[in-house]
Request: fold
Amino acid sequence: QVQLVESGGGLVQPGGSLRLSCVASGFTFTIYPMSWFRQTPGKGRERVATVSTAGTTTNYADFVKGRFTISRDNAKNMLYLHMKNLKPEDTAVYYCNAGSAWGQGTQVTVSA
Reply:
């Protein structure tokens, strides 16, 4: 069955960095654009970044431009999100997405 499993979240100080990973299985990874979304309590899920099937085109929400980088490794069925210069407002559960499939999320907390 389709599975997306995120990892790499945690507690980090403002200005710090984290790398999130998502391993995909159960579907043809290479034909799906992949995205990261995030959600905080009381707010809807918002798109953070998207990468094209070949990994050559990326698109970012304005609030992460210049700080986050999305990438993928099609040979390993992996999706990544490199996050730097993290801010307290980046605190959220981050989700990996492919079409209608979602992972379980990984918590990122940015706090001193």
The two ends are 40 Å apart (CA to CA). The chain has a mean pLDDT of 97. The longest strand covers residues 18-25. The CA atoms of residues 38 and 94 lie 4 Å apart.
